[in-house]
Design a protein that fits this description.
The chain is mainly β. The chain has one helix at 53-63, and strands at 2-3, 19-20, 26-37, 40-49, 69-75, 78-87, 90-98, 104-112. Strand 5 and strand 6 (78-87) form a beta hairpin. The model is unreliable at 1-14 (pLDDT under 50).
């Protein structure tokens, strides 16, 4: 499964991709958004899973193209993974974070235009 957060416009880093969705994650509307103006667009999709945050972040690390830079950090029992690919005309990013309710939240973002 992939999140359709890309319109296929090529950027400096080899183009936008359809961001992969972690297997078994459930889409939620809380925090999600989609907007478009005459100068660009932004799509944010939010997913949750009960899987361990480090496992999810490591999955993204292995399933995103090499152009995505970032990493996984754990401190105080909380894990955050951030991965981003910057283009001359926008960006794509994945943020994976543990929440107090013992779920893992996944934010997939594609922004076109600067």
């Amino acid at each position: 499964m992939t999140a359709s957060t890309s319109n296929g416009t090529a950027g400096a880093g080899g183009g936008y991709i359809d961001l992969p969705v972690y297997p078994g994650a459930t889409e939620t509307k809380e925090g999600a958004m989609s907007m478009s103006t005459n100068t660009g667009s932004l799509v944010v999709k939010i997913y949750t899973t009960h899987d361990d945050t480090k496992k999810v972040a490591d999955w993204y690390k292995g399933h995103l193209p090499a152009a995505f830079k970032g990493g996984v950090m754990t401190a105080g029992g909380n894990t955050v993974g951030t991965f981003a690919d910057e283009h001359t005309d926008g960006d794509q990013s994945v943020i994976v974070a543990s929440k107090d309710d013992h779920t893992t939240h996944i934010q997939l973002t594609t922004k076109h235009g600067k």
